[in-house]
Design brief:
Helices cover about 65% and strands about 0% of the residues. By secondary structure, the protein is mostly helical. The longest helix has 24 residues. The N and C termini lie far apart (about 60 Å).
Amino acid sequence: MSETESNNNNAWLGLLKWSLNYVDGTVPSNESEGFKEMSKEDRAFLEEVMKNGIVDEGERMKTILSSLVAYLDNILKGSSGGESKE
């Protein structure tokens, strides 16, 4: 194990120890005062937002990259034909 990996592991261990010392004493939601079950409408809305409102970054990057490659291909094809677009 390299020195960098060892330091990284020590940092995570330090964070774990710190986190365990500062537990806030919370309880599960259904045991807390004022807990209210989410309505079916709210749940449906949240599920819809989670399904449609979150962008798949990998797919988005593929789309952007293919558009960029197509654009650059068009530029290269246009410049190799000896035509100027001025």
